């Protein structure tokens, strides 16, 4: 059996599905922050949200595609599972890091917008 095809066949669809799930969660819940940051300008918030979503997809699917290749020797189900777990674990860590990076960016933008609003309305 070609264990490489097994790893590839499980890795890429799982990675794409995880990326879609995280991206959809960020897109849906991030909108509220963006509307607040842009002082109720929903059109601008939605536009920025779509741009962030596109960048998120490009980075994560691009990285997943780059790491599809395996240099490990895969000669058994055990080594296939180990290789797959390393690949998926890496992608999960990257998705988590991207999630927290997005939250940090939203936080900083919101703080900046609130500081500007306080200074402007004082």
From TrEMBL:
Keywords: Membrane, Transmembrane, Transmembrane helix. The chain crosses the membrane at residues 6-27, 48-66, 86-107. It comes from the Bacteria. This is Integral membrane protein. It comes from Hymenobacter mucosus.
């Amino acid at each position: 059996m070609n264990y490489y095809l097994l790893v590839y066949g499980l890795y890429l669809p799982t990675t794409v599905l995880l990326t879609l799930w995280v991206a959809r969660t960020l897109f849906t819940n991030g909108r509220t922050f963006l509307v607040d940051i842009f002082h109720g300008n929903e059109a601008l918030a939605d536009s920025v949200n779509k741009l962030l979503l596109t960048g998120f997809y490009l980075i994560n699917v691009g990285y997943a595609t780059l790491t599809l290749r395996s240099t490990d020797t895969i000669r058994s189900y055990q080594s296939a599972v180990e290789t797959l777990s390393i690949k998926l674990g890496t992608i999960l860590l990257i998705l988590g890091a991207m999630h927290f990076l997005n939250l940090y960016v939203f936080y900083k933008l919101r703080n900046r917008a609130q500081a500007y609003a306080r200074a402007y309305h004082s």
